[in-house]
Amino acid sequence: MSSFQFNHPYFLVLLALLPILAWWMAQKSPQASLQFPSLRLLKKVQQSRRSPAGKQLIGLRLCGLFCLIIGLARPQMVSHTANTNVEGIDIVVSLDLSGSMCALDLSTEDAIVTR
Description:
Blueprint: E1 2-6, H1 17-27, H2 52-72, E2 75-79
Antiparallel strand pairs: 1-2
Helix pairs in contact: 1-2
């Protein structure tokens, strides 16, 4: 059985700021990129505050921030396992291949024995 959890759930508090940020971005008036000598030329343009592309850009930015906040919270799938006590025996085999193992100090007169 697996469950879903966040490793850093305190980052999810930032999700509450997204509606405020969306409202602020919608209310913010765009800055003019060109200066006109007379405002009479801009009367027809002034009727619509935002273009559809501008609204989509705000939506994409908010969606990106949403994904970033969820990523910071580090969502994880956790599978629960049962712990069982198991007894075992450890076996160690060691080989000494150093030059001192060729010493003949264990030899007898009848047999030559190395370590």
